[in-house]
Amino acid sequence: MKKATQYIHAGAHPDPSTGAIMTPIYQTSTYVQEAPGVNKGFEYARSQNPTRQALEEALAVIEEGKFGLAFGSGVAATDAVMKLLKPGDEVIAASDMYGGTYRLFSKIYSKFGIVFHYVDMGAVDNIETKINANTKLIWAETPTNPLMNIADIRGIAAVAQQHKILLCVDNTFASPALQNPLSLGADIVMHSATKYLGGHSDVIQGALVMNDQALRDELYFIQKSCGAVPGPMDCFLVLRGIKTLGIRMERHCQNGAAIAHFLKAHPAVKKVYWPGFEDHPGHAIAKSQMKDFGGMISFELKLDTMEAARALLSGTRLFSLAESLGGVESLINHPASMTHASIPREERIKNGLGDTLIRLSVGIEDAEDLIADLDHAIQLAITS
User: Fold this and answer.
1) Phi-psi region for residue 375, left (φ > 0), alpha (ψ -120 to 50) or beta?
2) Radius of gyration of the chain from Cα atoms?
3) In this predicted model, what pLDDT tens digit does every residue of 334-347 receive, in sequence order?
4) Which member of 3, 46, 154, 287 is catalytic?
5) By C-alpha distance, which of 123, 381, 384, 372 is closest to 270?
6) N or C end: fewer C-beta atoms under 10 angstroms in the chain?
7) Is 46 assigned a catalytic role?
8) Could you say which of 98, 102, 109, 196 is catalytic?
9) Known catalytic membership, residue 359
């Protein structure tokens, strides 16, 4: 099936008892058994739920994988991957990544004896120099949050396979509509399904997709044993969101391109971070592994002061000041004080994430209205 068809039909099976075309919300904690150990494939809702099962099937299909697992949040999905490791194991991770992932790695798992090396993944050589006998996982994010850096998934996968190291790619910013890391050689794909998969800012959820049966079984055991599973209503919402993922991403990309070019041409804007520009250092790789460049953009003003940044962040009318991304509505964010506040300032600055960086999640509203909104807010910022 083509992608547009997959989004509608993946994981969707008419309810056998009623013929309902939408997967029912199986709001139950347990299941009646015919006899001890004799059941219909469901025993207890932490282990299995029909609504979650439908979602996990859909996740596998749209990510071009074999197995999907749903979790209570993106961080919970990341946490499950980390539980594959043991004290003394080492992880190579992107130096520019989501602040919640950095917090989990540095504040939780480093205490348990996991060693982390943070590198610029724009060059595969930076990864190879950190590999040793204890390296068990490479954690990549592309495009990165919030600097929109690009990692070469094929190149990193080749290195990981050579050294028998797991490669997990956070595909949240791209979504399965734009990028499929498993097809490029990754072992695991992670999503904050809260974002583009759900698409409507009304659910918290995470997902993992993989091809290897043994890896799936190990991660399923972690999912079942640790219990960070989503409820059936949340699974229903993400299933519903997936049905419109394709057409939503088309509009996110169209609007993102329009706004990126508007910002780049604006005399008050110093720099725009968006991989669709030919002068972006990762443009060629992005073009080779992505179907389009997405609706996430970061930028800085020439008037590089916190006063100007605050005036802009508070001056929009359509872009709402909020954390998160990937919803149908446009959001504006200040990473230094919001999504990446858990990263020490010196680390942020070293990796290029300045105090005045502004991040946009471009929604699916009319592009002209969004551009007018940003232009108005920029004028407020430069005259404040």
Assistant:
1) alpha
2) 21
3) 998 887 888 888 88
4) 46
5) 381
6) N
7) yes
8) 98
9) no
- d(CA 340, CA 106) in angstroms, rounded, equals 13
pTM of the model: 0.95
Active-site hit among 195, 248, 348, 359? 195
170: annotated active-site residue:
yes
Which of 376, 192, 174 is closest to 294 using CA atoms? 174
DSSP H/E element including 345 = helix 345-350
Please write the tens of the pLDDT for every residue from 91-148: 999 999 999 999 999 999 999 999 999 999 999 999 999 999 999 999 999 999 999 9
Which is the catalytic residue, given 170, 187, 292, 373? 170
User: What is d(CA 315, CA 266) in angstroms, rounded to the nearest whole number?
Assistant: 17
Question: What is the C-alpha separation between 347 and 370, in angstroms, rounded?
Answer: 32
* Token pair belonging to 355: 């105090």
Q: Could you tell me the two tokens for 125?
A: 């050589």
Residue 187 and residue 210 in contact, taking contact as beta carbons nearer than 8 Å: yes
195 catalytically annotated: yes
Residue 255 φ/ψ, nearest 5 degrees? -65, -40
CB 288 within 8 A of CB 184: no
CA angle 155, 220, 111 (to 5 degrees): 70
| Domains contained in the chain, CATH given | 3-243 (3.40.640.10), 245-383 (3.90.1150.10)
End-to-end C-alpha distance for the chain, whole angstroms: 54
Peptide bond into 50 cis (omega under 30): no
In the predicted structure, residue 353 carries a pLDDT above the cut 90: no
How far apart are the C-alpha atoms of 347 and 183, rounded to whole Å? 33
Q: What is the largest CA-CA distance in the chain?
A: 75
Spatial distance between the Cα atoms of 198 and 148, rounded to a whole number of angstroms: 21
